[in-house]
Design a protein that fits this description.
This protein has 364 residues and is α+β, with helices and mostly antiparallel strands. The chain is built from seven helices and 23 strands. A seven-stranded mixed sheet has the order 3-11-12-6-5-4-16. Strands 17-19-20-18 form a four-stranded mixed sheet. The two termini are 38 Å apart. The structure holds zinc ion (ZN).
Length: 364
């Protein structure tokens, strides 16, 4: 579907008999954009939302669709995923169809409430306005004849209010963006509601917000039909854990890219707690005399992929430090075959480490 958009723009002009340029508004801007027209099979239903309005006793439901890695909504929704009329106090939340010719010109600026285009006053060179209009068009598609717009993925957030101890409280709510004032751990994906509630319960218990317990979520219910459309995960769920490994496995860990950083004397639980959330392998060592329950652990930290110089040609490469190479040196991809020629696989490994771990590492 092609649409012509009419717009204002500004130009810097030096009028006749003048020396200094000034900004002049022109109103003959026109750009053609195309809006994808799809059928329901191309953009399947990803999330079904149902709920009731906060401000009145009325239920609502709508479906978000999935196309090109983006969620699309048939209605205007607010930050809490509740339908919101485009005009204050009215129920006109369904997006209107785009006309063949869309005129954004409002006085000296570009503005259109019906189709939600907000321009600014001041200097707006033609190229800038055209880029804005193309970006605006990218947020529109038509599915089975009804206009849809790109929306952000719903996510749960754990919020606290007030000074704790039931002054304010703790709550689980839905949001459409990340607030940088909140910790990343406060956000949960649509399939992590249980985890969000238990995290919020912990927070409320710590703060003494007893009136917020038992923790409940009040907001629209999201039924995930297409799990791939849910991309947000709580970082706690993705967190790596430190791990205890048996005595004598240090060479094995080294081949996996770990390197001994230090040794500690601790109980099993104590050692795990010490390195919780870090990519660390704790290799059992000897039991320690005079410290019951404690034993020695070799703390092996996963080496970062970093810039190394090739030990063969001197070129720059990326890899992990191998304990049999000088610090800062590794093998570059071009030299692998050359260096392997006259070596047994065992000796090659002992010299250079493991392919994919220490050299020739995949780009993340
Ligand atoms: Zn090389």
């Amino acid at each position: 579907m092609h649409i012509s958009v009419l717009f204002n723009y500004t130009e810097s002009v030096i009028p006749p008999r003048c020396r200094k340029p000034r900004t002049v508004t022109r109103n003959d801007g026109k750009v053609d954009v195309s809006i994808p027209v799809l059928n329901g099979d191309q953009a399947p239903v990803a999330i079904r939302a149902t709920g009731s309005f906060r401000g009145r006793d009325q239920a609502f439901s709508y479906e978000l669709r999935w196309w090109e890695g983006q969620l699309w909504s048939p209605i205007s929704i607010d930050y809490a995923f509740e339908p919101r009329g485009r005009t204050t106090g009215q129920d006109n939340w369904e997006w209107p169809e785009l006309p063949e010719i869309l005129d954004l010109r409002q006085g000296g600026r570009n503005l259109c409430h019906t189709y939600d285009f907000q321009g600014t006053y001041g200097s707006n060179p033609r190229e800038d306005v055209e880029a804005d209009i193309h970006a605006f068009a990218k947020r529109h598609i038509v599915i089975d004849g009804s206009p849809h717009r790109a929306v952000a993925e719903p996510r749960y957030q754990v919020l606290t209010f007030g000074l704790s101890g039931n002054h304010g409280g703790t709550a689980v709510m839905v949001a459409n963006c990340f607030n940088i004032n909140l910790k990343a751990e406060s956000y949960f994906g649509l399939q992590e509601l249980e985890a969000a509630l238990s995290y919020a319960t912990q927070v409320a218990e710590k703060r003494g917000d007893t009136k917020s317990l038992p923790m409940r979520y009040s907001g629209p219910t999201f039924d995930v039909v297409l799990p791939e459309a849910v991309t947000i995960r709580n970082p706690l769920a993705l967190r790596v854990h430190s791990k205890i490994c048996e005595f004598g496995t240090a060479p094995e860990q080294a081949l996996a890219g770990y390197k001994i950083a230090t040794t500690i004397v601790e109980t099993e639980e104590g050692a795990l707690a010490l390195y919780d959330g870090q990519d660390v392998r704790l290799v059992r060592g000897a039991a320690v005399f005079g410290a019951p329950g404690k034993q020695e652990f070799a703390v092996m930290v996963r080496q970062p992929v970093r810039r190394l110089l090739c030990s063969c040609c001197g070129g720059v490469t990326r890899g992990r430090q191998w304990n049999n190479r000088d610090d800062g040196y590794g093998l570059c991809v071009l030299c692998i075959d050359f260096c392997r020629r006259n070596e047994t696989p065992e000796r090659f490994q002992s010299l250079y480490g493991v392919r994919g771990v220490h050299f020739d590492v995949p780009v993340a």
